[in-house]
Design a protein that fits this description.
Blueprint: H1 15-28, H2 37-42, H3 44-55, H4 61-70, H5 73-78, H6 80-83, H7 112-125
Length: 137
């Protein structure tokens, strides 16, 4: 249990530090492409096109279709290179690394009080107002 001023210990470190760090890197380093899951769900083809443009690729329609199939949530969830099922210290009896892939599903789990607590924490720790996440599509 953590005290009020102590950060919880998490396996991969702070989500805020991770997201803020890569967003900052993207602003100053042209070879960093940032994608949002919600955008990928909303229009997978468009996001693949943007990624191809970033890499200077011109894939055929068949190649794009292949990629689209491989990045579908259910396919990724079964992929051991993505779902962490091959990592022995991940306890899938507690929780899977990848859950449902439903945008906004957190609303089904957070109480109003938890959501308010998260919103306050988010305001304190998100450092760049240009980084905006969607919670709905």
């Amino acid at each position: 249990m953590k005290s009020e001023n102590q950060e919880p210990e998490v396996v991969f470190g702070s989500w805020y530090d991770h997201v803020n760090g890569w967003w900052k890197k993207k602003q100053t380093y042209s070879k960093c492409h940032y994608m949002f899951y919600e955008d990928l769900i909303k229009d997978t083809g468009w996001e693949i096109d943007k990624l191809c443009c970033f890499f200077g690729l011109s894939p055929s329609a068949e190649e794009k279709e292949t990629v689209t199939g491989k990045v579908h949530f259910d396919v990724m969830k079964r992929n051991i290179m993505v779902n962490y099922s091959a990592i022995p210290w991940m306890d899938f009896n507690i929780s899977h690394f990848i859950r449902k892939g439903k945008v906004g599903d957190w609303k089904n789990y957070f109480t109003l009080a938890q959501n308010e607590e998260f919103d306050e924490d988010y305001k304190k720790k998100m450092k760049d107002p240009t980084l905006q996440f969607r919670t709905e599509i």
